[in-house]
Every structure is written in structure tokens, then in C-alpha cells.
Amino acid sequence: MEPYKKHESIAALMNRSNVDTDQIIPKQFLKKVERSGFGQHLFHDWRFNDNGSDNIEFELNKPAFKDAKILVVGDNFGCGSSREHAPWAIADYGFNTIISTSYADIFYNNCFKNGILAIKADKDQLDKLMAEIAANEGVRFVVDLENQQVTTPGGNGFSFDIDPFRKGNLLSGLDDIGLTLKHVDKITQYEQQHKQNFPWLWA
Amino acid sequence: MKKTMYEKIWDSHLVVDEAGQAPLLYVDRHLMHEVTSPQAFEGLRLSGRKVRNPHSILATMDHCVPTKNRDLPIADPIAKKQIETMAENCRENGLNLYDMKNPNNGVIHVVVPEHGFVHPGMVVVCGDSHTATHGAFGALAFGIGTSEVEHVMATQTLPQKKSKTMQVVVNGELSKYASAKDIALAITGKIGTAGGTGYVIEYTGSAIRELSMEGRMTLCNMAIEAGARAGLVAPDEKTYEYIKGREFAPAGQYWDQALAYWKSLPSDEDAVFDATVTLDAADIAPQVSWGTSPEQVVGVDSVVPAPESFADETKRQACESALAYMGLTANTKITDIAIDYVFIGSCTNGRIEDFRIAAEVAKGTKVAGGVTAIAVPGSYHVKQQAEAEGLDKIFTDAGWEWREPGCSMCLAMNGDELTKGQRCASTSNRNFEGRQGKGGRTHLVSPAMAAAAAAAGHFVDIRKL
């Protein structure tokens, strides 16, 4: 995983709530056995017309949002399925940061496994960010994970909370499995005890 | 200290709990299907890691499998590759796989309980949000992403943040034909799809105790639709009776030992929950979703709500866009909504009890003109049992299609899908835009309501039949 670095990027606006994983990556694209290449299908049913052309009504098709790395979106983002194809598609499309008031639990976890910083803003902060983007499409925000700070030219910046473990992993780009396996002796010890307590599970 | 069932299971599965890192939770059972696992196996291979405990895993093929002409090769080459990859990954790692031709095949969350693979007190994961189903047995069961699937295969643990606890109390008696599905939908309607975010729900109360194991599975299955990663029902005699004698059930000398442990699991009296929600079962009418989120649901005796009936601006907008997508007008009676398609099946409502109740309603009826109705058993065992009871005949006599098991139209990955604008009465769990096919319109209902709609061509208040 790439370490997450401080960056200044265009912030794209999707003023929609309860965006579910079926919208982020519709099921017809879940049949691939690879992790890559899902970005071209991100928000497929909204992004493209029936004939395959771009739907110019769809927010992310606005030229001003091209090359955006930050996605600013409404409440309860990523609800529904556990499919990690959703953050894979988001990352592959080019986003590395999402700002919303809230996320579905599984989706939130999945983001951090894929180098995506999912920032929780309070409702008031989010409304201000959305208004700033709406008034000035193509505006660039600065995201500084180290200092847990978002800065905007309109002065709507804020500091955000994040679990220190998730933060550390994003900053270092460390592999979760490697970290867990440092505790392999404890896992083995637990399993020995587990076998004694619940022999029927090991019979 | 008084503990909830969730806290008991959490505490007993903590492997590492140190400052500066997420607690590591031990995983007893790992369930798999073809869609969310291939990249995890690839990750293992690339890092040279092995599956730590192959016996903890049970795998099936369900999302992409055809529900008819099963003897023909799979037409979609990408789906075919996914199915073959699953078989290859399981073979290579020595995993127990119920493949498409296996008599035990079916939808993962239907198959797993059939074999007694999940017991009270376990931690159970699967790369599938409906893993919550197994909370019906008093197991902490939740969906995970593919990176976590790889993590569990390599380490048998998961870094986890402890959830808050929510008690959903449902007392009283359900009206005739109101079911576990209606309770689940009513809860989602009440607390919203984000209402349970950050929580594990424990369902309590007399109406929950009255539910069969199948009903409890339906209920817990939809915990995720209310935002909760897991739902739990305390184990009782029904639970023990259900598990006893099944393939992976504790046997012989171990049965009493297991039973004693299981009986220690229910939440202590006076254990404190972080939140409590109460419903009266008698108030729950058969539910019909009208929008594109499972929280957009009303009783069948109600009308499609108007956007202006929502005080909250976000909900008002959501209602407006849902009505546009669903092709519905505010204040239309639910019973005036005509349908084109009916689907009975899925990990929510694909069990024998679901087909029994649907057949009871379908018996002697005919599918209305212009309506297609399909019944898709959750597993081969459900199919066989239904056929032994003559239920298949009831459906086919009424003009239904009786299919092979699979996820089918719940998420429409296998070619069973709606076309643009088609409207479906569906016993599945999600009515998201495009879920059952691009432009398709899904109304979530119980099996009895689906069967009644098939015969009438529109929704009907089943209580009045």
C-alpha cells in the first residue's frame, strides 16, 4: 500500500446521501478475479447513458472535477454490501480521500485497507465544504493526515479525528497482516487454550 | 460485572488487546463464496502465506451460478472464470467447497446452518454483509471486505474495534401472515439504514422468542440493512434442537459440554445496552418498501409517502428521487401498485419455511397475466425438502418457475434480472437502484406477500385474503 502523503487536490462534490455500494460499483462488474481496473466502472449506472456515452448530468463528469483526489459526499456513504470492489473502484478512479459525515461500517474499514482516508466531518462542516465547492467548482483543498487537518481557500478548513492505529497504517503504508503476524505466538497460545475449552470445534 | 451476549463473545475471543493497536479478535468460522474471495487468495499467494486453519472454512458458489440449465456450461465467460477460480483456490488450499454440482450447494447463508457449521458463541466472518444471518444462533457473525478475508485466512484473527450495543425489543404477537421479514423491515423503517451503524443489535422480547430458527435467520440477516454489522438472538431450546445431529454439531461426549457453554451466553439480566429500541409486534402490518433504500418502507395498508411529509430535508430529497426512480406517485395506495415480476428466494427468505408459507398462499391460484414469478430455493436441501412436500408442484401448477438454488435475483449477477422499468415483488434484502437489473424497481416483501402479489398482479393485504 502506498503511504498516504499530505496533498493539495481538486475536491469533487456529490451532494447525495445514502450512496450504496451497488451504485459505487454495480454487480455486473464484480465477476473479475483481479483487484485492478474497477475505476472505469465507478458509479457506472449514474455515470454513463444507456448507449455508453458519458451522462453529462452526473456530477463527476463535470470537467472541473477531472483529476479530483478528494470526494465530498453526503451522509451514510457506502451502505449496503461488503464488496471491497467499492473502495478498489474509488481508489482506481483516482480518489484517495473521502469527506462525509458518516460511513457504513464495513465500507469504512475497507477504505483504510486500500489507502483511502475517509474523513468524518460534522454536518455543519460538510455543508460549508459543499457550499464552497458549489460556488467554486475546481477548488483545491489541502489534506494533511499527519496533523489531521483539512484546509480550504475559503477558510472552511477543520481538524478531524481518526483512530491512531488507522492513521499510523495509512501514513506508513504498512501491511495489516504483517503487523498481526508479529503476534503469532499469542495466536498459537490462544488456539491451544481454545482447543482445550472447545474440543468439539477441533474434533 | 453484568455483560451483554456481545460482550461475552467479544471477551472470550480477544487474542491481543494492547494500547496503540486495534484489538485482535479470534475467528472460529470463515465462510466463503466466489465473488469476494479470489483477490484474497491471490494476495496470499503473492505474499507466500498459507491458510492457517483450513477446517475453519466452508465455501460455496452462489452469486454467479445459473438457476436453470445447470448442466450447460456457464455462458458468461467472466462468471465462468470466477467459478473456476473458486474451485481451483479451494482445491489448492484443501478447503471444503460445495460447488455447483455438489448436493449440498446453495446460498452460503442457507447452506451453513443446514450443516450445523455455526454454533452459539462463535465468531463467524464472511466476505458478505449478510453474514449477520448467523447471529440467529447467538454467534457474533459479520461481513468483512476482501482484504480482511485474506487477513483471516493468514492469521485466523481480525483487528476489530469494539461495537456499541443496541437492544431491539419486540414484544407482543404478530398478526396472521406478518413475519420475521416484516419485523426486520419495520425496524429498518423505524431506525433508518444508518440507525445501527457502530452497533451490534441484540433482538429480544416475546415476539423474537416465538420466531422459528428460520425466522430468526431472516431477522438477523437484515441487521445490516439497519446499518448494524451484526444482529444477535440469544440461543434457547429451539437453537439447540436445530443444531443437534447436524454434520458439524458437537456429538457424543461433547454435546453436553457444548450445551453448558451455550447456556452461559445470553446477556445477563440487567446488562446495560448503549441504546434500546422498542416495537410492538401487534403494530407491524405486512411491510412493502416503496423506495430505493430499505428504510423507505410502509405497511401494506398505507400509501406511498409524499416528499413533503418528511420534515428532514435529506429524507425529503431522498423520497423525491426514489419516487422518480420507482415511477411512483405520492399518496398512491400500496395495494394499487401493479407488478411485473415476483422473486421468492435469497439468503433472507430462501429457506423451507419461506416456501411453505408462500405455497400456502399460492395454492390453487394462477400467476396474474403479464407477471413472471420465480421461486428459487436457497439450497439443494431446501429444494429437495420442498419437492418432498409437493410444494414445487403447487408453484408450477400456479404458473411459477421452480428453479435451481442460488442468489439469483437478489443481486442479479447470474443473468436472472429485471429489465428497465420492470417492477418486482421480491423477498430479498435490498431495493437499491439497479440492484435487480439496471432500471429495475424492487419492492421488498415477505414470501406470503410476494405469493399474494403474484396471483393478484398487484400488492394485496394478505390479512384480508
Give me the Rg of chain B, rounded. Answer: 21 Å
- Measured as a percent range, the helix fraction of chain A is 25-40%
Report the end-to-end length of chain B measured between terminal Cα atoms. Answer: 51 Å
Model regions low in confidence, pLDDT < 50 over at least 5 residues of chain B: none
* Biggest sheet overview of chain B: 5 strands, parallel
User: What is the global morphology of chain A?
Assistant: globular
Please estimate the helix content of chain B. Answer: 25-40%
Task: Give structural notes.
The complex is a heterodimer of chains A (203) and B (465). Chain A is built from 8 helices and 7 strands, in the order E-H-H-E-H-E-H-E-H-E-E-E-H-H-H. With 203 residues, chain A is an alpha/beta fold. In chain A, helix 3 (85-93) links the parallel strand 2 and strand 3 (97-100). The longest helix of chain A is centred in the C-terminal third of the chain and has 14 residues, at 184-197. The termini of chain A are far apart. With 465 residues, chain B is of the alpha/beta class. Helices cover 32% and strands 16% of the residues of chain B. Chain B has a 5-stranded parallel sheet, sandwiched between helices. A 5-stranded parallel sheet of chain B has the order 17-16-15-18-19. Chain B is globular, with a radius of gyration of 21 Å. The model of chain B has no long low-confidence stretch (mean pLDDT 97). At the A-B interface, helix 4, helix 7 and helix 8 of A face helix 2, helix 3, helix 5, helix 10 and helix 11 of B.
What key attributes describe this structure?
heterodimer, A: 203 residues, alpha/beta, seven-stranded mixed sheet, 8 helices, 7 strands, 15% strand, globular, B: 465 residues, five-stranded parallel sheet, 19 strands
